[in-house]
Structures are given as C-alpha cells and as structure tokens.
Write a structure and sequence with these properties.
heterodimer; A: 3 domains; four-stranded parallel beta sheet; 30 helices; 16 strands; globular; B: alpha/beta; TIM Barrel; Alpha-Beta Plaits; nine-stranded mixed beta sheet; two-stranded antiparallel ribbon
Chain lengths: 719, 299
C-alpha cells in the first residue's frame, strides 16, 4: 500500500465527541494580560493558542501539521469554560472576511529565505530603525506583538518535533519510525534556522499554513507553490538527495491534510497556482508544476483549489496534463489566462513583475502574493436594477422604494431611454453597495485589531513597523464587487430591445404587467420573451449587453477607493450565490420567474445556450475581460469521453486555447455525466467521493443542497 | 442560391479531425433500416413532435390554423395530415416539443454559420463536414458550400453513401479534402435489401474516386445481426482491397435516434437493439487489420 493510502486511512477517522478549544486556549493567553495594550494581549493569546494545543502526528505522515489539536475531548473543558472563553475572546474581537482577515496568499518566498531567525532579526532591526519616529510607541507595540507571536510559532514547531520523536519511539514499523525521526530532525532545525532542503521548505510552509488554521483563518492560499519551492527542489535533485517520486509523496502527504477541514464541518478552499510566467516574463512551468498536478489528482479531495495559469507559447503538454486531471472527475485545475489577468492587474499600477507573479486566493480572486492585505468582496445584484427601472425604483417583493425615481417606465419611448434609467438605478446601487462595504470595513480600530502574526508574512509590514491593515503592506487593500447575473441581465435587455422596441410585439406596460403577475396568465408573452436572442449563442443582440455589463460595472466601481486608497475590482463570478441573489429579484424580462436563481457567474443561463460550446466561447469572449481585475468564472461540463479519448481531448484543448486567444479569462470544467449526477442525488451513499466544482470551488457533490445539485445538473452538457 | 438544410451543428466531435461544423442536408436516396437521422431522409420539410417533452399547455391547439393539434384529457394528439408546416405552433411552444426539420436556406446563411467558428477550425485542424441525408443529392448546393469554404481555406469533408451518379462527385472533387464514404454491405443483394441502393454503383464510384487521387475514408456501420460477424467484415474488407481505399472507420451501431422515429410517428425496427460492446468492435477491428487496412473504431 502506498504511503498516501495509509495516511488517508488515518486522516479519514474523524475525531469523536470533540469540542472546539481554540477560544479556550486563546482565553488562557489573554487572562494574564488584561492591562496590556490590546496588540500585546492579542499576541499572548496567539502564543497560548500555538503552544498549548496537542501536536498530533500521524504514523504514516512525512510532513507534520494537523488541526486535530483544535478539537479535544478533555472532560475538564466544560461548556461553562467554553462560554467564558468565548465571552473574553469575542470582547477582544477579531477581523472578519469583510475586514481583511483571510483569503490571503502569504509571502512564502521571503519567509523561506529568512526563516524564523531572519524574521526575528528584521523585527529587531525595525525596532532600532524606528526608535526616533513620532509614532514609535505604536510601532514598538506592533513589533513586540509580532515578536511574541513569531516566537510562539517557533515553539509550536519545536513541539511538533518533540511529538514526532515521541511517536517514533512508540511505534515499531521501521519505515514509519525513520520517517517520523526525519520530521523531528527537520522541525528541530526550522524552528529557528531557514530551510535548506525541499523537505524542510515544504514542512515550514505547511506549519505556517497550519498556524493560520489555528487562528481560525479560512481560504488561505499556498500561492505559487511550484515557483517558490522550485529552487529547493532543483537543488536537491541536482545533489541527488531527492527524487521526483519522493517529492510527490511529500506533497501528497501535505495536501491531503487540507481535507482535515471536514473535522470542523466543511471544506476549505486552499488555492494553489501552478504554471504561468515568471516575474521576468519567462516560462514558469517546471517539473514541480507537474508533480503538484499529480499530487492533487492522487489526493482526490476538494480542498486544494488548484489553478493552472495558461499563457501563449507554453508547452501544450502542460494543458493536456491539466485536462487529464480534470477528466478524472476532480473538476480542477481551473484554467486561468495569463494574457488577460496580467493586463487586468497591471492597469492598477502594480509593477509588471508583481502582476506576472499573481496567484489566486479563495476560488478565483486574482491576488499579488504577500504584497497586499487580505481580500474581501461582496455581491452587487445587477438584475435587480432592471426590476427597479420597470417599477420606478420600487422593490416589488417588499414595496420599499430602494432606488431613485426614474419615471414611469411605460413612457420610455426608446431602448436608450430604458438604458438611461437603468444607469441611474445602477449608479445609485453602486453607491449603496460601497456605503455598506465601507461601513463594515471601517468598523474596527486599526490599532486594537492589529494582526501581528499575519503581518510577518506580508512585504514591508515589519520594515515599516506597521500592521498589514494599517499601512504596512506594500500595496493598499483592494475589494471585489461581485457583479451578479450577467446572463440574466443581458438576456433581459435583449428581450426588451427585441420584443418591445424592435419588433414591437408587446408594450413595456404589458411587459411590466406580465412581470408583476410573475407571468401567471401571460404564458404566451413569456414564450415570446424566451425566444428572443440569448447570451451564450454568439448572438450580438444579446451579447452586446454582456459587453455593456462588464464595461459599465467597471466604470461605476472604478470611481471608488478602499479606505487605504486601493481600487475596487469587479468580478464576474458568483460562487453559488446566484441562487440567494435570485430570491431577491422579481420576475425578469428574460422569462425567468420571480425568486428563481440568477444566471451563474459568466456562464449563459442554464439550458439557453443552444449552439454548443464554440458559441458559448463566442459570447463569453466579447466583453473586455482586462477590465475585470478580480476574475471570471465560466462553468462548462463535458462528458468523460472528451477527456479519456486522446483525439477528443485534443479538440477540447484547441477549444480552450481558442477561448483564451479570443480573450477568455477563466474556465472551469466538470467531467461528469448528467446520469451520474442524477443517480448521486438519489443514492448519495454510493457517491461519497464525487467531487464537483461549483462556480469557483470544489465540493463534495452529495454535500450540496438540492438547489445547487439541480443547478449543476441543468448546466447544458456539451458532448 | 439555396438548399434544403435539416440542421447545422458547431463543435461536432465525431465527424472528422479537429473542431468541425457539420451541415446536415436533407434528402436521401437510400432507405437504410438502421438510419439514425430519419428526419433527413425526405427531400421535403417534415414535422417532428416529441411527445415526452410536451407539457400539454394547449397553446399549439389555440394557435394552429389547421386544428392539427388537439389536447384531449391531458393528452396531445397531432394530426399529421392536417399540418401545412406553417410553423405557428413552434413559435408558441415553450417546451421544445415541436420542430420542423428542413428549411430552405441560402448559401450566405450557411456560410455565416460556418464562419462563426473559423478561429476554432484553424486552432484544431478542423473544418466543415457536409453530411445528411445524402449531400450529393443536392450536389450543386454541396459544391457551392465547399467552394465557398475553400475561399476561406476551410478543410472540407463530404460524408456520402455514394449511391449517386459519378458526375455528382465530379462537381465537388475540386473543393473536397476528404470523402467519408459509407460501405453498408458485402453483396449486391444484401445492399439492395437493407438500403434500397446498388452496391455496384457504390463500389464503382469508390474505386474511381480513389483512382483520381482523392483522399477517401471508408465508413462502415457495424449493425447487429447484419454486419457484426467476422465473416461478413472479412467479405467487406476484401471488397475494399479491390477499390484502392485503405483507410477505414468502423462505426458501432447506436440507437440514439430512437426518439426521432417516435417524433415522426414512425416505427424504428432497431429501437430494442442493444449497442455493440467495445470488445466486439475490437474483435472486428482485427479482421480489417489482417487485410493491412488502416482501420479505426469511430475515427
């Protein structure tokens, strides 16, 4: 049996009757420091957290770091204690997604070359450097807190080393024993020194990632793993101290532990970007890119959210290998187009080298690793504004006046009048969106909410003596406005133009009445509207509104800035929130009934793309995606034979290359047949390992709720 | 110029190399028992009614000027002989249950459709496949499409059963890169019985086409209970050897066309026929290999 298979068995045994003890541990750190400045108290809480959980070592592991220590069945940890701990920890508060806490790609490159020793030295130097600054007290407090938490992390590594040695002493299998002693030896070195080998570097990265999980962070990316680990890989291979096979095993053991997220009740999304160009523009695909691809395939779990960066002139073999992995039913890697993403980032003034070094956080969000604060985003429900135009700013479901008074829609004589009113509603909506975002994002005190530990993994924070969210990061924070329902929007406007204004088959007044009645008694009108041109069929009448959607949302949000002067990106992706957003929107002129899901991400509306995948590509590539700096999701589904048959796979490869050449930004492919999915809904027990990508991240299919399952099932299956 | 088109399809993955657009022309001079495109046989438009998709909403009944649609007790009755193919019902149908196969289409409309995917052809070494029906039953229109495609440097395959006068081939030869040429029997008697055509004509055309330097791939449907024996395949292989054609695709029977027969209110004799296994196909592949033919399953 392979090492990975043995490890899988160990990891798949879930801890029983266990309670979450994270807050209890942090509480023990806070207690002695109530009178200290908040950042210092926070650092001591991190120290208690990192150093007092039980370091779990799997007998078959090659790389230590497990979140089992977050759970405990210790009877001394009573509910009363947990309540008390929660009270204190919540009083100190913590950053959330909306206040830049997670969805972050750490600066692993720098950290691997500094090690803990180098990082602590930087902190010392910075304390010296800033001692005459007018705000030295603030900086000193921050740097002290950083030092306390970094020392705590060092201690955590040391404890893993001891735990591995102890475990080795307890077991008798020789290979396991020597593997665990190796872990122990490595931990003893990297608890202070910088790593020199591939194994050491990978171990350090994984323990950093593990430490973030203890802090309660989610969607922390590993970023360009194949780039920052490559010098170590190459060095060891040249010295003959590492083989490709061993590197594969090490990565497998590491990534399979992402699946431990189910202990905490779900899947994580740990984005890993492979391939792409290097900062200098040269080819970035290397042997390690392929090793990671293979490891992710062998792990076969949803957590490692693998992204493959594709660019012109890259070895075709790489894309082909990606397709083979997608074809296993895994659903990733998601394919990202460098030729669009790099210019999309470069517009914001980052150096070209930094843009070329982008990776993704969360599902698909473009990110410059280790140089900007953690990501945040929200949902801008664009189809809602069509409802508001038709009803003079009033929300149909609630009767509340939500938008401005744009006049009686039945008096709009031309499509231009209609669009003018729509612009007003959208402009107002964007202002409202930004109001909500700013109020939430500003709802904390920058000093009290410092993140001293996270800041150690962001370029310039230590040097400047400033927190990641307080001017420490190299670039300012950015925010993503998730523009929902591009297809619902384009199809609706296409129907209004085609049916009301061009063909004059019905009046806007009649349309309004049909929508208010949710098409009840208006079946014929609904059919007429459904027959109007639809986005996803390479039809310009519909597609021009998708083009407008992308450019106008960008125009609206480019006027705004984040609190520290960063820009607002748009994104044409929606995760599964097209369903919840749809609940808020009344019937739309595309034939959609009230409260039904909106279209998903950049994909055409389910079942309305009737001309096959090349026509979908034709429609989706019409908008200028260099305006969409966060990213896009185009979900497509193909039958498994498209991947297994080399001749057919070559066709798929050509399709994707053409999609990218025409300006497509991203594509995510599922390789499952509708029959399988349907059967999985009926007999979930037989499909526990079925992984499906849902708009940007992978999940176990059977875990999805019925609406999402149907959503996937209905996506037109292209043969 | 116009032709009668059954349908056009982008991203066809089974009709030749690369990403292709397939144009299905209407009208066929054969009556193969197992035909999977029964709607293309007639050289006139035909009405199709997919009963299982119908929601009995009644709009077709309301709109039909001929009263050809009637919903009685929640069941939809369609009287084919009343239908004048005006298409009114289709415009109002929400469920996609109603369809007409066969539309008089201009050359420029066909070309517009083909050119939508031109970037994909060049990226994948694909192109256009003209199929049917029997495309050479509309040889002038086929020639016009092929010629126009050549002006855009698009690769052309013509998918024919070849039961036509050779003059039809002569019209298209200059613009065709590959002929996909069906072979559907080993004896004149069988061929006539199963397809209604003449094997002698087919073989003569095939030989002449190969001799004139055209690239020809013979496509052999493997039909259960007919051509699925090693002996029969050997007989076909032997005949092929005499034609000079060396490339062969053997195509396993499938019954995906079943619902089209019910939509046309026709009986499909092969509706219950189980598709051939992969192992069986590989067994037959070996028969052709023994003759030194360059043979593939599906192609």
């Amino acid at each position: 049996m392979k090492n990975l298979d043995l490890l899988k068995e160990e990891i798949n045994i879930k801890p029983q009757n266990a309670k979450f003890i994270g807050n209890v541990l942090m509480y023990s750190g806070y207690t002695g420091h109530y009178d200290d400045p908040v950042p210092i108290a926070r650092a001591y809480a991190i120290e208690a957290l990192f150093t007092s959980y039980i370091k779990h070592i799997y007998a078959n592991d090659l790389v230590a770091g497990s979140i089992r220590g977050k759970l405990s069945d210790d009877p001394n940890i009573t509910d009363a204690l947990i309540n008390r701990a929660n009270q204190v920890v919540e009083s100190y508060g913590r950053n959330s997604f909306h206040t830049n806490a997670d969805h972050y790609a750490p600066d692993y490159e720098t950290f691997l070359s500094d090690g803990i020793e180098g990082t602590l030295k930087k902190i010392r130097l910075s304390l010296e450097e800033h001692k005459n600054d007018i705000d030295f007290y603030k900086k000193k407090t921050f740097l002290e807190a950083a030092k306390i938490s970094m020392n705590a992390f060092s201690k955590m590594i040391e404890q893993y080393g001891m735990a591995a040695a102890q475990k080795a002493a307890e077991i008798e299998v020789k290979t396991q024993q020597s593997n665990l002693l190796k872990i122990s030896e490595i931990c003893n070195k990297i608890k202070f020194k910088k790593p020199d080998t591939f194994h050491e570097a990978l171990q350090l990265v994984w323990l950093v990632h593990t430490s973030f999980l203890y802090e309660g962070r989610y969607a922390m990316a590993l970023g360009r793993l194949d780039q920052y680990l490559y010098p170590f890989y190459q060095g060891d291979i040249q010295k003959g101290t590492l083989t490709r096979a061993l590197a594969l095993e090490l990565i497998e053991c590491t990534l399979y532990k992402i699946g431990e997220a189910v202990y905490l009740g779900g899947d994580d999304v740990v984005n890993i970007a492979i391939g792409g160009v290097k900062p200098d523009g040269s080819e970035g695909v290397n042997e390690l890119s392929y090793v990671i691809l293979e490891a992710v395939k062998n792990c076969n779990i949803p957590g490692p959210n693998l992204s493959a960066r594709i660019h012109e002139g890259m070895p075709e073999e790489f894309l082909d290998e990606c397709l083979k992995v997608i074809g296993t039913g895994l659903g990733y890697p998601a394919l990202m187009n460098d030729e669009i993403n790099i210019p999309a980032l470069h517009r914001h003034g980052y150096t070209i080298e930094d843009c070329r070094n982008y990776c993704m956080v969360g599902c698909i969000e473009n990110f410059i690793p280790g140089k900007q604060p953690p990501w945040s985003d929200g949902r801008y429900n664009v189809p809602k504004y069509i409802e508001l135009v038709l009803n003079n700013g009033r929300c149909i479901q609630t009767g509340v006046q939500m938008g401005p008074d744009t006049g009686d829609a039945s008096l709009f004589e031309t499509m231009e009048d209609f669009l003018e009113a729509l612009k007003k509603q959208m402009t107002f909506g964007a202002a409202e969106y930004m109001m909500f975002f700013r109020n939430e994002n500003d709802r904390y005190n920058k000093v009290a909410y410092t993140q001293p530990y996270l800041s150690c993994y962001c370029r310039c924070c230590i040097e400047r003596g400033l927190d990641i969210n307080d001017g420490g990061s190299y670039y300012p924070s950015v925010h993503g406005a998730g523009c929902m329902g591009i297809a619902t929007f384009a199809d609706s406007l296409s129907a209004v133009e085609d049916i009301v204004y061009n063909k004059k088959l019905i009046s806007l007044q009649t349309l309004k009445e049909a929508l208010l009645a949710n098409y009840e008694g208006y079946a014929e009108i609904r059919t007429t509207l459904l027959n109007a041109p639809k986005y996803g069929n390479n039809n310009n009448l519909a597609d021009k509104y998708a083009v407008w959607f992308v450019s106008y949302t960008n125009e609206l949000f480019s006027k705004y800035r984040t609190r520290d002067g960063g820009t607002i990106y748009t994104t044409i992706a929606s995760n599964t929130q097209n369903i919840s957003a749809g609940v808020e929107v009344d019937a739309t002129p595309d034939g959609r009934f009230s409260r039904e899901p909106l279209s998903d991400a950049a994909s055409p509306m389910h079942g309305l793309d009737k001309n096959g995948p090349t026509a979908v590509v034709g429609s989706v590539t019409k908008p200028d995606y260099t305006l969409v700096s966060c990213g896009t999701v185009l979900n497509q589904k193909y039958s498994p034979s498209m991947f297994t048959d080399p001749l057919k796979r070559a066709k798929l490869l050509a399709l994707i290359k053409t999609y990218f050449k025409k300006g497509g930004q991203e594509i995510q492919i599922n390789a499952v047949s509708g029959d399988v999915l349907f059967d999985a809904m009926e007999n979930p027990d037989n499909y526990k390992d079925l992984v499906v990508r849902v708009s940007g991240f992978s999940a176990h299919y059977i875990c999805l709720d019925k609406a999402v399952q149907l959503d996937i099932l209905e996506r037109t299956e292209h043969e | 110029m116009t032709g009668l088109i059954s349908s056009m399809q982008h991203f066809s993955t089974g009709d030749g190399p690369g990403i292709r657009t397939t144009v299905f022309l209407k009208g066929c001079n054969l009556r193969c028992e197992w035909c999977h495109n029964p709607e293309t046989i007639s050289s006139k438009p035909v009405f199709m009614f997919y009963e299982h998709l119908c929601t009995n909403c009644g709009l077709c009944q309301e709109k039909c000027p001929q009263n050809a649609h009637r919903i009685i007790d929640n069941k939809h009755f369609f009287e084919r002989k009343l239908c004048i193919l005006c298409g009114t019902c289709i415009e109002h149908c929400q469920s996609g249950a109603l369809k007409i196969s066969g539309e008089e289409t201009t050359l420029s409309a066909v070309m517009d459709y083909i050119l939508e995917d031109i970037d994909f052809y060049s990226a994948s070494n694909g192109g256009v496949t003209i199929s049917g029906g029997e495309p050479l039953c509309q040889a002038e229109f086929t020639r016009a499409i092929a010629k126009e495609c050549k002006n855009h440097n698009i690769h052309i395959i013509i998918d024919t059963a070849g039961n036509v006068n050779f003059s039809a081939f002569e019209k298209v030869i200059p613009y065709t890169d590959i002929f996909y040429f069906d072979l559907k029997g080993a004896t004149e008697q069988d061929y006539r019985q199963k397809t209604g055509g003449s094997l002698n004509t087919v073989l003569k055309n095939m030989t002449r086409l190969a001799a004139s330097g055209c690239s020809v791939v013979s496509r052999i449907p493997i039909i259960p209970g007919y051509s699925d024996s090693a002996r029969y395949c050997a007989a076909m292989a032997e005949m092929l050897m005499k034609t000079g054609v060396r490339q062969v695709n053997i195509l396993p029977f499938h019954r995906l066309g079943t619902s089209k027969y019910s939509a046309l209110e026709k009986k499909y004799p092969y509706a219950e026929c189980v598709p051939l296994s992969r192992e069986k196909m590989e067994e037959l592949l070996d028969v052709f290999l023994k003759y030194g033919l360059d043979v593939k399953i599906d192609g």
